[in-house]
Amino acid sequence: MNSSPANHAAIEFRNVSYRLENGRPLLHDLNLEIQTGETMVLLGRSGSGKTTTLKLINHLLSPTGGEIRVEGCSTAEWDVIRLRRSVGYVIQEIGLFPHFTVERNIGVVPSIEKWDADRISRRIDELLQLVGLEASLASRYPHQLSGGQRQRVGVARALAADPPILLMDEPFGALDPLTRVDLQREFLALQKRLHKTVVFVTHDVREALVLGSRIALLAEGRLVSVHTPREFLQSQDPVVRSYVEAFRMNGDLSADRGSS
After folding, report:
1. Could you report the per-residue pLDDT of 158-205, keeping only the tens digit for each?
2. Cα(78)–Cα(59) distance, integer angstroms
3. Residues near 14 by beta carbon (within 8 Å), at least 6 away in sequence
């Protein structure tokens, strides 16, 4: 499991709401602090507000009420380009450029940042090793890779400019179960080394328990609770209990966490 979070909020939601133009609310008065170096898992069903919350962090969406602060500064005051380059973003469909090789995909942000060619090349080599990919894959195109390999490239690209914050939206959801477990394991090892501030969206309780420092449960656009994995399993909150009990039908979840 990754290390304990530092006592500093990297991301703060202060009474944040978000409504569509037609007035439909997607998020209601969210108050949440995400500490530097922790993995905060946003857990909930489809439509619970998880992805909306994630997109508010890097200003893909703007709140219709309240304030989001990243590294102590309101997202309304950040230069949007600088903000997004300070935040790595990994999605389920990966979003790799199909006409770019693996090395060009990974090197996109460093190139935009005007790193010199040698520095970019060294960084690509370092990241391929970090995410468990062979150097020989650098010249391949996304369609020549497996799903798991493409997802690893997506993670490498998000880490390329060494951003302090990493946003991950159901990154392993489209993978087969064995590959998904492999990548979860690799993610834990990676986070233990890098200590990034990670916000990880999932609807999978097991994944939340395995990967999260804390779990923020969302339902119908509202924050239900924030718990450590152990607290989540032991909670008597009826909404939390419904999640735990439903997924215990697939096996004893506590076995993944031991007594930690």
Report:
1. 999 999 999 999 998 878 889 889 999 999 999 999 999 999 999 999
2. 9
3. 31, 66, 67, 68, 69
pLDDT, tens digit, 9 for 90 and up, residues 55-80:
999 999 999 999 999 999 999 999 99
pTM of the model: 0.90
Contact 3, 39 (CB under 8 A): no
Residue type, 131: V
DSSP state of 20: -
Inform me whether the pLDDT recorded for 254 exceeds 70: no
The token duo for 82 is: 């600088």
List, as one string, the DSSP characters of 72-101. Answer: TEETTTS-HHHHHHTEEEEETT----TTS-
Structure tokens belonging to residue 98:
């199909």
**Cα–Cα distance measured from residue 74 to residue 12, given in angstroms and rounded to the nearest whole number:** 9
Q: Which residues neighbour 140 within 8 Å (Cβ) at sequence distance 6 or greater?
A: 101, 102
Give tens-digit pLDDT for 95-148.
889 999 999 999 999 999 999 999 999 999 999 999 999 999 999 999 999 999
